[in-house]
Amino acid sequence: MSAKDEYENMIGRSERFLLTAESSLKEGFLDISSFNANQSLELFLKALLLKSAGDFPHTHDIKELLRTLARIGGSKYSKKINKYLKEETLGLKAIQDAYITARYFFVSTSENEVDQMIGLIKKLREDLRDVR
């Protein structure tokens, strides 16, 4: 599989994870929704890194992926990403924590919290779409 094909595959999977997150939220499956939202963002960022640098860090740490993309994406993207890292710290932490908590623990979360996670991911994807 070429790097371009892998990139397209990751973008497509990211979009499907986001659709699944939205569908799960409507069904009231908050843990599954938050997990899928996390996976959507993680794959999206890794796809951007793959396209920009030809590889990506093998981590689940959303903030690390964002910092890496900011470093290699140029000033246009570093400014946007650094703004998110500064202004959306709690939202990014919630998205990142969703990966671990949904897989291994039961943590009560509200529909509003999951909806906010999905909204933040959509906004971040939109702001970084130029990288694609």
Please specify the SSE layout and strand pairing.
Elements: H1 3-27, H2 30-53, H3 62-72, H4 75-87, H5 89-104, H6 111-127
Helix pairs in contact: 1-2, 1-6, 2-3, 2-5, 2-6, 3-4
Key words describing this protein structure:
132 residues; mainly alpha; 6 helices; Four Helix Bundle (Hemerythrin (Met), subunit A)
Can you put this structure into words, describing what you see?
With about 130 residues, the protein is mainly α. The protein has one domain: Four Helix Bundle (Hemerythrin (Met), subunit A). About 80% of the residues lie in helices and about 0% in strands. The protein is built from six helices and no strands. Helix 2 runs parallel beside helix 3. The longest helix is centred in the first third of the chain and has 25 residues.
Q: The CATH topology, please?
A: Four Helix Bundle (Hemerythrin (Met), subunit A)
Order of helices and strands: HHHHHH
Count of all domains: 1
Average pLDDT number: 90
CATH architecture assignment name: Up-down Bundle
- Say which CATH homologous superfamily is assigned: Nucleotidyltransferases  domain 2
Strand content: under 5%
Taking all Cα atoms into account, the compactness measure Rg is 14 Å
- DSSP E strands, number: 0
Task: Report the helical percentage.
Answer: over 70%
Q: State the helix count.
A: 6
Structural class: mainly alpha
Shape: globular
List low-pLDDT spans. Answer: none
Q: Briefly, what is this?
A:
The chain is mostly helical. It has helices at residues 3-27, 30-53, 62-72, 75-87, 89-104, 111-127. The longest helix is centred in the first third of the chain and has 25 residues, at 3-27.
